[in-house]
Amino acid sequence: MATTNIASVLTLSPVPNNKTSSVPLKENGVDTINDSILGVNDAIPIIDYSLLTSDDHDQRYEAIQKLGKICIEYGFFAVMNHAIPDSVINGAMEALVRFFDLAEEKKRKYETSNSTDMIRWGRGVVHQVTREFFKIASHPHFHCPTDPDDLREILQEYSKRLREVGINLLRGISKSLGLEESYIEKAMDLESGYDFFTANDYPPRLSAPNIIGQFPHTDPGLLILLMQNVTGGLQLEHKGKWVNANLNPNWIIVNLADHLEIITNGKYKSTIHRVVVNNEVRRVTFPLFMGPSLEAMVKPAPEFVDDDYHPPAYCGMTYKDYLEANQQHVIDGKSCLKQIRL
Question: pTM for this structure?
Fold first, then answer.
């Protein structure tokens, strides 16, 4: 079988300019004000989903080897040829816009902190950037606002299709680690896996300077699968620089998340990323946070631990306890990775 060359799966993502920015120094955990936020036009690795799920053994083997190298060297990638119809993607984005365009009183009923609610709506301002959002738990039980009338049907179909892609990516990741294909599915009880979406609506900022919309962070879960209505906005940390994810809007941007780092005892890293806003058009994003079952005990797997050279680097805890750390609710999706490192 052919030797895998990481360069063979990279593509250059176009950006408006060729200026660069280094990962900034931090002040109280956030970027310093004088940080340049233009990003770099480095290559973004691309996974061809049709090869990863191919019936051709050699094609699939090579795709899995590439996936493993990308997970180690980058921790993020874009997925093309994922077989989700454009009509499903565009329908979901259009439905989200219709929700955000509803009258305020129809959305405010989801402005709640009740621990039993699996739908959350809100609006906030971060660093002078206005963002409206809503969060919904999508698996194992699907929750959705009742307005507009067709929102539930459209988003449920989108969720089903995107989750299928995520499951197949995790199967490929299991194989890339030298494990059986269903290892992560079984260990994390993904049949009962807790998934949620966060929809974000950033209004246009005409002739405005680049500005931080979300500060650098990692996310809980196994994978984050992001789709958005326009290109740009997301920046991914790689080798001390911020890489602009300026890709085809109908490709899926995938970040490795905290619990994949924990399971692999740090072999695969959770992706540090941030959002830079300078959109002259409305920007709507819809990331899926794929996670273990809430009751799954997540700790470094025995296959990645030995007492002499690779002792456990993370405390074990259930996914529910992780999400509820620091008085958070499971729908909030906050990381506490730094707190559980040993």
Answer: 0.88
Residue 52 Cα distances to 63, 165, 184, 254, 306, angstroms: 5, 10, 17, 15, 31
User: Which value, to the nearest 10 degrees, does the dihedral of the CA atoms of residues 246, 249, 255, 257 take?
Assistant: 130
Rounded Cα gap, residues 132 and 202, in angstroms: 7
List Cα–Cα distances, 71 to 74, 120, 173, 261, 319, in angstroms.
6, 32, 8, 10, 22
Amino acid identity of 316?
Answer: G
Q: What are phi and psi of 151, to 5 degrees?
A: -60, -45
For residue range 155-179, what is the model confidence (pLDDT) as tens digits?
A: 999 999 999 999 999 999 999 999 9
The pLDDT tens digits of the residues spanning 25-42 come to 343 333 433 356 788 888
Check the CA dihedral 342-287-173-10 and report its sign: negative
pLDDT digits (tens, 9 = 90+) for 227-242: 998 888 899 999 999 9
Using left for φ > 0, alpha for ψ between -120 and 50, and beta otherwise, residue 333 falls in left
Q: Identity (one letter) of the amino acid at 182?
A: S
Parallel, antiparallel, or unpaired: how do β-strands 43-48 and 283-285 relate?
unpaired
Whether the Cβ atoms of residue 135 and residue 120 lie closer than 8 Å to each other? yes
Handedness of CA 154, 52, 44, 259 (dihedral sign): positive
Number of Cα atoms under 13 Å in the Cβ half of residue 182: 4
Which residue spans within the chain are E strands per DSSP?
10-12, 26-27, 30-31, 43-48, 76-80, 119-126, 129-139, 195-202, 211-217, 223-226, 234-238, 241-244, 252-256, 273-277, 283-285, 288-290, 297-298, 317-318
For strand 252-256 and strand 288-290, is the pairing parallel, antiparallel, or unpaired? unpaired
Cβ(38)–Cβ(21) under 8 Å? Answer: yes
